[in-house]
Amino acid sequence: MPQDEERPIRRRRRSSAEVARLKALRQAHAEKLERARRDEQRVDDALAPFAEAAEAIAAAKRRHEERCERITARLERDLADLDRSRAKAIEAADAERRALKAVLDEETGELRAVMGESVRAVREVGTGMPETAALLGVSVGEARRLAAAARRLNPQASSAGSVADSTVHETSAAESATARVPEAETVTAAEQQGPDAVLEGERHRQWGGGSA
After folding, report:
1. Neighbour-count burial of 68, counting CB atoms closer than 10 A to its CB (0-12 exposed, 13-18 middle, 19+ buried)
2. Which of 17, 23, 86, 183 is most exposed, with the fewest beta carbons within 10 Å of its own?
3. How far apart are CA 118 and CA 136, in angstroms?
4. Residue 135 CA to chain centroid, in angstroms?
5. Alpha carbon of 164 to those of 147, 160, 182: distances in Å?
6. In whole angstroms, what separates CA 34 from the centre of its chain?
7. Cα separation of 144 and 107, whole Å?
8. Is residue 153 within 8 Å of residue 109, measured between CB atoms?
């Protein structure tokens, strides 16, 4: 082998300044790595409670939704019960009103029959139903209902009332027929005797007035 290859390689001896600079670089790099490890640990330490808090929030929301669903279901049941109770209360109130109406009808039936007798008595003297209603201060329909109540209580008076009604209708018809005859259509006695009598009457008035 050549002598150069057999000769050992000698390293150049570093100066103290270079050694110090390298040492400083190594120290800085080590400190940088240490800071990186500390930062990574701080990130890991921050992520753990964040994840735990997020999971706790999600669980709290789930519990909240479940409770709200239970409240909604209970509310629907309560409302259904209220609807059933309301329907029963309305039905009971209607039954009470019907019972009270029956009592009222029983209490006032005879009194309305008395009023109906008054209607019948006024009608029997020839008063029409509208005039009778106006006299008693009621409507025509109410006057008819009162008269019907009297007939139901006293059927014997119905025949007399029917006669009175027919008499009033005939009187009203006669009065209406008389009112429809114009005064201009009144026939004199001379006109009933014929055309000659009318002409003679005219001549008599003319000559008689002249001689006078």
Report:
1. exposed
2. 183
3. 9
4. 41
5. 12, 6, 30
6. 79
7. 20
8. yes
pTM reported for the whole predicted model:
0.41
Backbone angles phi, psi at 64, to 5 degrees: -60, -45
- What's the burial of 188, exposed, middle or buried (CB within 10 Å: 0-12/13-18/19+)? exposed
Q: How many CB atoms lie within 10 A of CB 168?
A: 19
Tokens of 194: 């014929």
Alpha-helical (H) ranges within 3-137 are 3-6, 16-124, 129-136
